[in-house]
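ESCALATION

Customer reports they have been waiting on this structure for their group meeting. Please prioritize. Original submission:
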Amino acid sequence: MKTSPAAPVPPAPHSPGHAEGVSNDQFRAALSRLAAGVVLLTAREASLDPGDAGAPPGEDAGMTATAFMSVSLDPPLVMVSLRNGSRMDDVLDEQPLWAVSLLAESQSHIAGRFAMKGRLSDRLLFEDIPYIRGEHTDAPLVGGALATLECRTEQRVVAGDHTMYIGRVLTTTLPSADGTPLLYFRGRYRTLP
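Update from on-call: job pushed to the front of the queue and completed.
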C-alpha cells in the first residue's frame, strides 16, 4: 500500500520579531509573577588613560537589577544580566571588577533612584547614599545592605538583547545582620509579609 507524503504543517502564527509567538507584553506579564530580589550593581569606571598614573580615575556607576543569581558554589560564581548597550553593559565591558549590594526592604528609595529612566548623572545618584569602597573592586558597597559581594568577570555571554556577566566572587560581607529583602513583583517593589 502506497502512502502519500504528509502535507507540510504551516508555521504557528507569531508576533512581529518573535518566532515563537510570544509578544514583549506577554513575556513581561508572565515574568512579572516571578518574585526577584533587588540588588544595586556598582562599578568604578576604568580610567580614561590607564597608562597615566596621574590621570583621574573613572566615575562610579550603578544600576538596580533583579536579574541576579547564584551560579556555582565551587568556584563561587554569580550572574547578572544587563541590557546590551546600557551604561552598565558599557562599563562592565571595560571594567572586569564590580560589586553587588543585596538591598533591604528599607532601601527601596535607592532601588528606585538607580532604576529611573532619564536619570541624573551617577555622581549625583551616589551623593547622599552611605557606602564604603570595596577593597578588591573600589566599587561602592551600600551601607545597610543585607549582604555585599565583590566580583571579577569570568565570562560574558550574549543572549538576545542582554549580556550575562558571570563573576567570580572575591569577597562577601554581611553589613546588616537584621532586616528582610527588598523584592520586585508585578512591577512594584515589595517586602515579605
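Sent to customer with the following note: The chain has four helices and twelve strands.
Escalation resolved.
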